[in-house]
Design a protein that fits this description.
heterodimer; A: 968 residues; alpha+beta; Ubiquitin-like (UB roll); FAD/NAD(P)-binding domain; Gyrase A, domain 2; 7-stranded mixed beta sheet; 6-stranded mixed beta sheet; 25 helices; elongated; B: 92 residues; mainly beta; Folate-binding fold; two-stranded antiparallel ribbon; 6 strands; globular
Chain lengths: 968, 92
């Protein structure tokens, strides 16, 4: 128990009048409104909050922002749980539950902590090297249980999320001093400005300086904030820019609340983007630097100023940068006892605050205590002189790492600044500027001047500097370590992934030179924090080990998201049916009343069959199909693709689109047509009817209408630009009710349809436009079943009432609905092609026997030339044939392979469609078979899931080969 | 996600568009050689740098148009209608 709450006025961001209480791992934690989970835990003296990923060592809160590597908790329970989230980045809420992510069976007794006793046995690459033989998958489950962090939610997330797109003139990211100044100047020069701040409050580093003697920081900030409001800048807090994409698009995540919307995704397109994302502190490297109580110095300072929390009773500052002295002054001002400043360097530009004990040219070499610190060993780097200091918190200040993530995502290149040991933006990007600490400008006055000028549109090189001298390397010297007289503790470079100095040395010994390889071999810089606090230390070490400068080593690629994001925030409410809305047919209700069993077909909910009590789909479909053959069936075909083609060149245009000729159709006639892609492959099919000299009614497959209409448009706009044609997809405007069977006309006549539609008056494959029941309808005689059939197209809102009427008058004729599955049985009996089932991405028209008449056609239709390529003319091509089982009883499974010898062996073909034909009393199937047309009568062997079947190759159709039933 | 300028609707986000690949590829006549037809069907240049390509404003006006885009930086240096020629200054 080392941390405690400071008395007011310390803690500018908390509201002491509003207390809250939450559960952490079974313990009650009290805090104030404005606390983060981390600040409330620290105020209560809880320093040990989790266990590390690989070694299961105790870990505490390390930072005060989203760079947090170790203070990871699972927030919420059940379906609400969010795993592995940063205690430093989550506002504490009354009644919430938080659990450590990686501790089993409990935080205090972690059985897997035995791992850390065997740490020497698990260096980098351990898993790669050890679990290779005989098979990694043997070991994977146990290792996955042991590794990993939090636990995923138990079910779909009940919270709400949304997404908003926004367009702004100037987007400023980061509301620290530089960001505020840039936003203000941009607004004052008349620009529309949006300012994003990741934290709950603006002010950044400047806000954390309020504790020190003079009040200038506070005044300055107040002044900026006041002017900002007056200038009309909109400030959005709790909103983190996650990524920067092409053409100045920023995606940002706003944490809203848990009541209306939990998180909101912003997609912001800006004319100019000013990055003011600040810098992340770089930790010092020393033995056992992962102990709970070792923290970033800036975090210790921020917990004191913002949350009124002392992170320890006696704080040691370990530093290699002048900023450590400013933190010392802040802590003194807050009344927190300063045990000592341990400066890695011999000299500093800053003076230590009065009374502070300073060890210059020294390092921390030992940390006592495992779940909390109690003593610190300090040794001089040159002499090794060793001393012990009582302390419970180490504030680590090893320099600064400008947050260049967004700059780098935009394609920016980085430059290494030797004296301050940091990477800064190295070239200017169009429309994107960096100001303040993220540009490497740490001297306040210069940085504000530069930010102001940038905001006004006068971009100039950033005034890089202001940190003094920061050594790249800050690990204790061998002399200092030797003074311990024992083996020093592990020095952790990446706290989240348990990557130590040893691991990087090992990688270098094994000749890993590329920083990307180093990352993957050691796991350095991976997982939720992406190495925000560790990458530069690792690069410096890698550089030293391979005799290169950090600039030569380079950084790993920065990728979005800047901080972890919940998948639901990205989905933004587009889940379940909102992800892909299902389309319902205009007669949907009628099918429901008839007991339709709905399934999805190409995005439409359609009745697969109408099952009687406990009947399976397949027997139901066979029954329905037989009923169509003997009586009459009613089918809704509303999803059938429908496109109107108008214009003086409509006929000529369709001749260019279809394999067959449409220009020769007389008005009122219809014709089946095949559409090809330019490579000759069958792309869609359907009936084309001519309604007028310049007006065609094109039917496509239900699933293909969108792509057919788009293809027509593309050919019309990009190739046949002189053809005067209007292409209008009208699928959902028209309902389609299909009546099939020997009694089809009797049913329509009873329902009051005009005598002119009688089969004696209207030929097969013709279309009539007429009025029926107050609506203009288009009736086509066509058949996908082989029976007398009428397709009644009518305005969609009339579909339901027509179905009802046909159902009522149909009782007399035993008219019954039939579903998609019955339709498939009927068309298979007739050998009619079903696109996508009988064809695939290689099928040419000749393969399905539909190349007749091409030679005589004049138009160079789409795909025509491809039918003359050698591959298209190959005699060995597969062709569509019928198959009957030799025993006339075994169903031939769809997908069964036609083989010539025992598999594995090349196949001769495969079954594409299969059904039991009740009317024929035997199963029938269609298949693609090599040279199939020439093999009629041959008996072939089929192989399916270890089973062998024999079948006879036959001609189609299986049923009514002369087509006599079309006339009823 | 890029932002493209539809000549009819103005600047819109990329997800309103579909890219149709290299533009202005002449369709060879029916009596061309297999090689010429094969080139037309399957072979594209895939340049690193300026690329003239056609885009459709699918979730907008539905019109095709041409864009000269740098495949490295995504910088768009010209937008012109489907029947217009690539600006001379940007010839490859």
């Amino acid at each position: 128990m080392s941390g405690y709450r400071l008395s007011a006025p310390h803690g500018a961001w908390i509201d002491r009048s509003r207390t809250l209480q939450f559960d952490f791992n079974g313990a009650e934690v009290r805090g104030f409104a404005g606390d983060t989970v981390a600040s409330a835990l620290l105020a209560q003296g809880i320093v040990h909050v989790g266990r590390s990923f690989k070694l299961h060592r105790p870990r505490g809160v390390f930072s005060c922002g989203f760079e947090e590597p170790t203070g990871l908790v699972d927030i919420g329970a059940g379906r609400y749980r969010t795993p592995n989230t940063r205690a430093t980045d989550i506002a504490a809420a009354d009644g919430m539950t938080a659990k450590p992510g990686n501790a089993w069976p409990s935080l205090a007794v972690d059985l897997a902590a035995m791992n850390s006793k065997f740490a020497a046995l698990t260096p980098a690459g351990f898993y790669y090297k050890t679990f290779m033989w005989p098979d990694w998958h043997l070991f994977e489950p146990a290792i996955r249980r042991m590794a990993g962090l939090g636990v995923a939610a138990d079910g779909p997330d009940p919270d709400r999320y949304d997404e908003v797109s926004q367009q702004v003139e100037v987007l400023v990211i980061g509301a620290g001093a530089a960001g505020l100044q840039a936003a203000l100047s941009a607004a004052q020069s008349g620009r529309q400005v949006l300012l994003l701040e990741s934290g709950a409050h603006s002010g950044g580093w400047l806000a954390s300086q309020s504790l020190q003697g003079d009040a200038s920081a506070t005044h300055r900030l107040d002044d900026l904030t006041r002017q900002l409001a007056a200038a009309g800048v909109s400030l959005r807090v709790n909103c983190t820019a996650l990524g920067l994409y092409d053409h100045q698009l920023v995606v940002a995540l706003e944490t809203v609340d848990d009541v209306t919307v939990r998180e909101r995704l912003w997609k912001i397109r800006a004319e100019r983007i000013i990055l003011a994302t600040g810098a992340i502190e770089r930790p010092m490297l020393f033995p056992d630097n992962d102990r709970p109580g070792v923290m970033l110095a800036s975090a210790v300072e921020r917990y004191a100023t913002h949350f009124g929390v002392a992170c320890g009773k006696r704080v040691v500052i370990s530093t290699a940068c002048d900023s450590g002295y400013a933190v010392a002054a802040s802590l003194q001002a807050a009344g927190i006892e300063l045990a000592a400043i341990v400066d890695y360097r011999e000299a500093s530009a800053e003076d230590a605050p009065t009374g502070a004990k300073v060890f210059r040219g020294s390092s921390i070499v030992a940390v006592s205590g495992s779940r909390a610190i109690n003593r610190v060993g300090v040794a001089a780097n040159r002499s090794g002189n060793l001393q012990t200091i009582d302390a419970d918190c180490i504030a680590s200040a090893g320099g600064w790492t400008p947050a260049v993530n967004l700059y780098s995502m935009a394609g920016g290149k980085l430059r290494w600044v030797e004296d301050a040991s940091m990477f800064v933006p190295g070239l200017t990007l169009k429309g994107i500027e960096s100001v303040g600490a993220c540009a490497g400008a740490f001297e306040l006055e210069l940085a504000l001047d530069h930010a102001g000028a940038t905001g006004r549109g006068n971009a100039a090189p950033a005034p890089v500097g202001g940190l003094g001298i920061v050594p790249a390397r800050n690990t204790p010297t061998p002399i200092a370590l030797a003074m311990l007289g024992r083996r020093p503790g592990k020095i952790f470079v990446d706290l989240q992934n348990d990557v130590c100095v040893d691991d990087i040395e090992l990688a270098a010994r094994e000749n890993y030179r590329s920083v990307e390889h180093l990352k993957r071999y050691t796991t350095m810089g991976m997982a939720t924090d992406q190495g925000k606090t560790s990458n530069v230390n690792a690069l410096v070490l890698m550089g030293e080990l391979t005799a290169r400068t950090p600039a030569e080593v380079g950084t790993t690629k920065f990728r979005p998201p800047v901080k972890p994001v919940t998948l639901n925030a990205l989905a933004a409410g587009r889940t379940g049916e909102r992800y892909r809305p299902l389309k319902r047919m205009p007669g949907h209700t009628w099918h429901e009343t008839k007991g339709g069993l709905f399934e999805e077909f190409g995005g439409w909910l359609r009745p697969a069959a109408y099952c009687k009590n406990h009947e399976e789909i397949i027997p139901a479909a066979e029954r329905e199909a037989l009923h169509v053959r003997t009586h009459v069936g009613i089918f809704e075909g509303s999803p059938l693709g429908k496109i109107e083609i108008y214009g003086p060149d409509a006929a000529a245009f369709l001749d260019l689109m279809y394999v067959g000729s449409m220009s020769t159709l007389a008005i009122g006639q219809a014709r089946y047509g095949l559409l090809l892609r330019e490579d000759g492959v069958i792309f869609d099919d359907g009936i084309v009817a001519r309604l007028g000299e310049q007006h065609f009614w094109v039917n496509t497959t239900s699933g293909g209408v969108d792509r057919v209409a788009l293809a027509f448009e593309e050919w019309q706009q990009c190739e046949y630009i002189n053809h005067r044609v209007l292409i209008t997809p009208v699928t959902s405007s028209w309902g389609n009710v299909t009546v099939s069977g020997p009694k089809a006309w009797k049913l329509l006549a009873a329902a009051g349809f005009d005598e002119s539609l009688a089969p004696t008056n209207m030929k097969h494959m013709t279309v009539r436009e007429l009025a029926y029941g107050g609506a203009k309808v288009r009736v086509m005689r066509a058949s996908f079943s082989g029976e007398l059939g009428y397709e009644i197209n009518l305005p969609a809102p009339y579909t339901q009432s027509l179905l009802e009427r046909l159902g009522e008058v149909g009782c007399e004729f035993e008219a019954k609905p039939y579903g998609i599955e019955a339709l498939m049985v009927l068309r298979t009996e007739k050998g009619f092609l079903h696109l996508g089932a009988d064809t695939d991405g290689t099928t040419l028209p000749g393969d399905v026997g539909m190349d007749r008449g091409i030679a005589k056609k004049a138009a160079n239709f789409v795909g025509r030339r491809s039918l003359l390529r050698p591959a298209a003319l190959d005699a060995d091509r597969m062709q569509l044939v019928g198959l009957l089982p030799v025993d006339r009883t075994s169903r031939l499974p769809t997908g069964a392979h036609i083989v010539t010898k025992q598999p594995p062996a090349p196949i001769d073909g495969f079954v594409t469609s299969s059904a039991y034909s009740a009317v024929l009393g035997m199963p029938v199937a269609l298949a693609m078979l090599k040279r199939g047309f020439a093999r009629i009568g041959e008996v072939i062997t089929l192989f399916h899931l270890g089973r062998t079947l024999r079948a006879e190759v036959v001609k189609t159709p299986f049923f009514d080969p002369k087509g006599e039933r079309l006339e009823g | 996600m890029m932002q493209l300028q539809c000549p009819f609707c103005g600047y819109r986000p990329e997800n309103e568009f579909d890219c149709g690949g290299t533009t202005a590829i002449a369709r060879p006549p029916i009596d061309c050689s297999d090689e010429v037809w094969g080139d037309y069907l399957f072979f594209r240049v895939n340049p690193k740098g300026l690329h003239a390509e056609r885009w459709r404003h699918t979730f907008g006006c539905g019109q095709w148009f041409n864009v000269v885009r740098d495949t490295v930086t995504h910088e768009v240096s010209a937008v012109y209608r489907i029947t217009e020629s690539r600006p001379r200054a940007l010839d490859p």
